[in-house]
Amino acid sequence: MGPRHRADMLRVYGDLDAMRWVGDGTAITEEECERWFDVTAENLRRRGYAMMALRSRATGAVLGFAGLVHPGGQDEPELKYALERGSWGVGLATEAGAALLSWGQGALGMGRIQATVAEPHAASRRVLEKLGMVVEGRDVEDDGSVTLVYATPASPEGPGAGG
User: Which fold has domain 3-152?
Assistant: First the structure.
């Protein structure tokens, strides 16, 4: 994911209805988009994985973004995804999430992978629960909103097993 995805990123992360669940609820700016590309490039260089564009099999159009990241430099990987409005409710987040969790725990040898979600965001909570993730924590933010911390246990075969 890089500068060639600028328009797609601004479209997906510029939707205020979707962004009400992300961070401070504001749309991404051009400057933040550029910083995101820098962080993504650094994550790929340093870790070998990062956010990536999700494309339609039929048209090749970018439908959203998903990946395994380490927000704020946290130690544990975190599953993240954001989809354009037209791709909500059709199983794409679940499909991408399942693939990323399998890849992370299998090929990359990750143990616990977490995901965070605003407590009232029922659709995203359903996705995480379909993926077998469970609530492990509840953070009350400065504004009083609640973020749930979901996690999946390490692969039953142990780190590095499967694929």
Answer: Aminopeptidase (3.40.630)
